[in-house]
Each structure stands twice: as C-alpha cells, then as structure tokens.
Amino acid sequence: MSNDIPGYNYGDREVARSPLSDEELEQLKSGAGFTEEDVHHLQMAGEVLRDQTEEIVRRWRSDIIAHIPHLAKHSRALDGGLLPDYLAKSNKRFEQWILDTCFRPYDRTWLDYQHEIGLRHTVARKNQVDRVSSTPEVPFRDVLSFIPVINETMKKYLAKKDHPAEDVEKMYRSWSKSTLLQMAIWTKAYESNESTKNV
Ligand code: HEM
Q1: Would the pLDDT of 195 be above 60?
Q2: Number of helices (H) and strands (E), helices first, in the chain?
Q3: Which residues line ligand 1 (CB under 6 A)?
Q4: pLDDT tens digits for 24-34?
Q5: Closest approach atom of ligand 1 to CA 70
Q6: Mean of the pLDDT values across residues 148-162?
Q7: Mean predicted confidence (pLDDT) in 81-86
Q8: How many domains does the chain contain in total?
Q9: For a 10 Å CB count at each end of the chain, is N or C smaller?
Q10: CA of 14 to the centre of ligand 1 (A)
Q11: Which residue has its alpha carbon closest to ligand 1 atom 20?
Q12: CATH, residue 59
C-alpha cells in the first residue's frame, strides 16, 4: 500500500469519521449479501488488477468521462480549461482505491475512508486536497449512474490473467457488490451536504 500518493491519507487522524456505526456497516454488508467469499474473490481480483490500475483509471477518466461533457467538467477549471495536475493526482488516488477495494479489511478505518472519498466528491471537500478551482460538487446521481461503467469495464481487466470464466464471474460479482456497498456508504457524505442538492 502506498503512502507517497499526494492527498492519500488512509487511516490518518484528519480523515472524516463516517456517521454510520460499525453495526450499520455490518447491516449494509449483510443486505448486499457480502460474505467472506467476496473477501476471498476480491483478493483474487486484486492480484489480477495490481499491475493494471493505471490503465483502468485512464480508461475510466480519460477515455470515457473526458468525452461526456456533464461529467468531464468536474475535473476541469470553471472556464473549462484543463487541470492536468488535478487529474493526475486524483487519478493516483483512484488507482489506490482499486487496490484498497480489493485488499483492505472492510472495518472502521475503511468505512471512514470511504466516507472521506465520498466527501471529496461533495462541496464539503471537493477541490481542497489538490487546491484547485473546479466545480463544487459531483452530483450523487452522476456518481451512481457511472457505477455500471465502473463494473462493466472491470470485467475485461479481470479476464486478462487467464482465470477460468467462472472465477472471472465471481471476481466481477464481488467487485460489483463492493462498489454498490461503497455508494451506500457515500449517501451519508451527500446527506451531510443537503443544502447543495441542486448543484
Ligand atoms: C462511480 C463511482 C466513482 C468512484 C468509485 C469514484 C472514486 C474516486 C476516488 C477513489 C477518487 C479519489 C478520492 C481522493 O482520495 O481524493 C475520486 C476523485 C474524484 N472523482 Fe470520483 N469516483 C466515482 C465517480 C465519479 C464521477 C462520475 C466523477 C465525475 C464525473 C468523478 C469525479 C471525481 C473528481 C473530480 C475527483 C477529485 C475530487 C477532489 O477534488 O478531491 N468521480 N473518485
């Protein structure tokens, strides 16, 4: 795990605390049907994805989001100008998120960091880590509607190391459960910013 990524501060004291309790985290896991088997398949996925994270994030952000104007604007200056440094630094944290999703235990520290990442998409913390002037918030509906892309594109990368199709399917399913679980956690970050609902 990397500590030399700018703005990546997993487990640090200044990370926000999720308003969800440990018990509520367990409830979310059980609601999503997230079990030890998923933990196992996510670790398997992590081994497969470990050396592909840069390519995956480039695909999501430079190949896909960059061509969808209402999404692309969130990584740009308010006048539409490019902010390459912002993109590059947040890309690194996005790459690390893939590894964290696969390898970190889903405990209190992980829950709090998911809340922190959620907040970094909202008016509470967006732009602050990289000290940029960009849109104040990525609307939650746009984050949520990107989940099928995050999941679907992953399938191809999970299949790249010649695992049997059924293992690829299991890794894909566990990955998909996890992304949805994380979105459920992020709802709390957006709830704490009710006043910006119309951004
Ligand atoms: C689908 C679910 C999504 C996931 C899992 C996700 C994940 C992440 C992660 C891990 C980071 C780095 C957070 C950090 O450590 O600072 C990040 C940052 C960012 N994401 Fe997302 N993202 C998602 C959707 C989107 C969408 C749809 C957009 C825009 C269209 C977007 C725009 C951004 C921006 C602008 C940042 C930098 C935030 C900042 O200013 O700190 N994300 N995202």
Answers
A1: no
A2: 9, 0
A3: 7-8, 65, 71, 74-75, 90, 93-94, 97, 117, 120-121, 126-127, 129-130, 138, 142-143, 146-147, 150
A4: 999 999 999 99
A5: 30
A6: 97
A7: 98
A8: 1
A9: N
A10: 19
A11: 121
A12: 1.10.490.10
In a domain, 197, yes or no: no
**Token duo for residue 21:** 């309790």
Domain range holding 113? Answer: 22-192
Ligand 1 centre from 121 Cα, in Å?
6
Q: At what angle do helices 36-49 and 147-158 cross, to 10 degrees?
A: 70
Distance 34 CA to ligand 1 centre (A): 23
Query: What confidence tens digit (pLDDT) does each residue in 19-74 have?
Result: 999 999 999 999 999 999 999 999 999 999 999 999 999 999 999 999 999 999 99
Ligand 1 atom 24, closest CA: 143
In sign, the C-alpha dihedral spanning 30, 34, 37, 39 is negative
Does residue 5 form part of some domain?
no
